[in-house]
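Q: Protein A?
A:
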Amino acid sequence: GRMAEIVIPVAGMDCGGCVKAVEKAVGHLPGVSSVKADLAANNATVVYDEAVVTPVAIAETITRAGFKAAA
C-alpha cells in the first residue's frame, strides 16, 4: 500500500520511558514502518501503510498504552 506520515499529538509523556512505551506499542502494529515519539514536542511521528492501519487505530493504541492521543 501507500506509505503515509502522520504526526499525532500525545499528552502524558513525561519521561524517556514514556517515549519508549509509545514507540513500542505503535511499532507492534501491523502496517507501521516507523514511529518516533518526541517528548519535548508531545507528539509521535508515525510512518504507516494506509492500506493496513488507520490513524484512528494508531491513536487508540497510544491511548491503550496509557497516554492521551488524538488523530
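Q: Protein B?
A:
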Amino acid sequence: LYVASDDQGLILRFNGEFGDYLGRVGGPISTPQHLSFGADGQLYVYSGLQRAMHRINPTTGQILQTTGSIG
C-alpha cells in the first residue's frame, strides 16, 4: 500500500494486510498526488506544486525520471 503524505512531501509504503510501516519511497516530492503503477511496474507520482510527473522504482525508491515543469 502506497500513501502520499502531502504535508511531508513523501510517499510512504505500508504492508497492505497488516498496516506495518515499510519505509518511504523516493522523495522528497513537493505535494505528491495521484499515485499510479504503470504497465512497466514503476510507480508514477504527480507533484502538484512542481507540476511534474515522477517515475519511481517502487523497490529501491529511486526517482528514475521526472518530466514536466519543475519550479
